[in-house]
Amino acid sequence: MLKTLIFIGAGGFVGSIARYLLSQIIQQNATSSFPWGTLVVNVVGSLLIGLFYGLSERGAIGSSEARLFLTVGLCGGFTTFSTFSNENLALLRDGQFSFFAMYAFASVALGLVAVMGGFALTKMWS
Fold first, then answer.
1. 126: pLDDT confidence band, cut at 50, 70 and 90?
2. pTM score > 0.90 for this model?
3. Other CB atoms closer than 10 Å to residue 49's CB: what's the count?
4. What is the mean pLDDT of the chain?
5. CA–CA dist 119, 48 (Å, integer)
6. Exposed, middle or buried: residue 3 (CB in 10 Å: 0-12, 13-18, 19+)?
7. Sequence-ordered list of residues with C-beta below 8 angstroms from that of 76, at least 6 positions apart, any chain
8. CA distance 39 to 104
9. Is the model's pLDDT at 4 over the cut of 70?
10. Distance from CA of residue 82 to its chain's centroid?
């Protein structure tokens, strides 16, 4: 059990740092207050988790520890629902209702499309 927790924690460490860096780079280059950084991170994370679960189902990710490192750890640390929720609240409080609606819808819709796309990509490699 301790070995499993270490794998998950290591993945979360890497994923959290990657999320912060990618989100900052994207948001610093954005020309509006729309939370592009978090949206991109969550869509990319959804694509990755679809890929990882698809590869795992095919047996391409050997150990359960590796699967947990990549999915629960890396993707769990990389994506963030709490930041998504806080940014939606900020948009509502600032009266940016159209950005709120667009962000909430795009995050859920693109996240679902990305996870399905990632999983489907692994089927194409069969």
1. low
2. no
3. 23
4. 91
5. 9
6. exposed
7. 8, 11, 12, 15
8. 9
9. yes
10. 12
